[in-house]
């Protein structure tokens, strides 16, 4: 992130809203209300080189901490999603150091013991719940760490599924855990080792490798934009009714 007065032009077309004061890294700026922190920082002249990715609350690159006047509480949010408030003091944590264990996923068994060996510090967790309280994605961080300690990797995988790896949990952990890396290892084990393989997926991979869809792909690549639009509109939809056993028709030859 750099201060760049030129970037101000990019957000000068912000709605003509009343301006409110905010403090970015201690310096006071007047910014239009209703902007997100990210847009307000750009309005103030900051240019994002790091600490910004998707701008949609998915990538976790823009973790931000802030306080409000007269409030003891440290608050957190994603800069691309959190709207500015008058007199807020803020700064970004574009990256928070967290060591990732190296392991061989292909050769692993997928056991909890392997995770415990890779991250022995997981047992230092004292269940203070600071990680859960700070999570901007409302993930139950402490609960998935507890599940990993117990060996329940499926539960840990489910509880941590919404993690965007912003690293704010790491910044608050008194036991100094890299929670999101530990959860990622659990999810990889569940996905690669513990979940039964889908037979139809294996079959489709074999079909593709054997060239079953080559003619169709060739047709798609040479099709006009209009025929692609028509094909898209005519695509099959999975029925909305839950539990219905639905198999799509084979689409070969739709372009002919
Ligand atoms: S920029 Fe990706 S979550 Fe904010």
Report on the structure:
With 256 residues, this protein is α+β, with helices and mostly antiparallel strands. It contains 10 helices and 7 strands. A 5-stranded mixed sheet has the order 3-2-7-5-6, covered by helices on one side. Strand 2 and strand 3 (27-32) form a beta hairpin. Helix 4 runs antiparallel to helix 5 (153-159) and helix 5 crosses helix 7. Mean pLDDT is 90; it is low at 3-10. FE2/S2 (inorganic) cluster (FES) binds at residues 52-55, 57-62, 78, 80.
Radius of gyration: 24 Å
Number of strands: 7
| Ions and ligands | FE2/S2 (inorganic) cluster
Give the N-to-C terminal Cα separation: 52 Å
Strand content: 5-15%
Task: Let me know the average pLDDT.
Answer: 90
| Total count of domains | 2
Q: Could you say which structural class the secondary elements and strand pairing correspond to?
A: alpha+beta
Uncertain spans: 3-10
Query: Might you state the CATH topology name of the largest domain?
Result: Fumarate Reductase Iron-sulfur Protein, Chain B, domain 2
The outline comes out as flat
Q: Please, how many helices?
A: 10
Q: In CATH, what is the class of the largest domain?
A: Mainly Alpha
